[in-house]
């Protein structure tokens, strides 16, 4: 299988305004991979953080034209594009926390999160891109549960959720991830 260095080439699909990369803005790099939008500029929208038992872990990232994979001895998470506006995420043994990439929320910048009434979808709305990013669990094997926002050790409220051991999607624009 042909692979490429994710630090040099973002994972994307022809015609998409989305990519997954560590480059989150002009001359800005992040430690974790991010869903990046190129709508209204270049903006990191969602941080994608690999987890084992709720704790961040170091992983090997393998990028191929058709699939991006986080690998760890505990398991794997894979991401594929489903068209130009949707991503499919699945994992086994390894979790993936999907966090707001913005440092804060102001009247003109940042991302806010709400749970869509009547569905299991979390919706991130980004002021920078003017788009919504819907995270929809497609299946929860073993009766897994989605996590709610919680405070971090610094007191900052973490806006995000975790996907692990099952399948889910993110849709942007409304974009599905």
Q: How does this structure look, described?
A:
Residues 146-159, 162-167 and 171-177 have low confidence and may be disordered. The strands form 3 sheets. Strands 6, 7, 8, 9, 11, 12, 13, 17 and 18 form a 9-stranded mixed sheet that branches. Strands 1, 2, 3, 4, 5, 10 and 16 form a 7-stranded antiparallel sheet that branches. A two-stranded antiparallel ribbon has the order 14-15. Helices cover 0% and strands 55% of the residues. The protein starts with 10 loop residues before the first strand and ends with a strand. It is mainly beta. It has strands spanning 11-12, 18-25, 28-37, 43-52, 55-56, 60-63, 68-72, 75-81, 86-92, 95-100, 111-115, 122-126, 131-139, 150-151, 157-158, 160-164, 167-172, 175-176.
Name a few traits of the molecule.
177 residues; mainly beta; nine-stranded mixed sheet
Short description:
The chain is mainly β and 177 residues long.
Q: Classify the helix fraction into a percent range.
A: under 10%
Structural class: mainly beta
Residue windows where pLDDT falls under 50 for at least 5 positions:
146-159, 162-167, 171-177
**Overall mean confidence score, pLDDT:** 82
Instruction: Report the β-strand fraction as a percent range.
Output: over 45%
**What is the ordering of alpha helices and beta strands?**
EEEEEEEEEEEEEEEEEE
| Largest sheet descriptor | 9 strands, mixed
Gyration radius, to the nearest Å? Answer: 15 Å
Say what oligomer this is: single chain
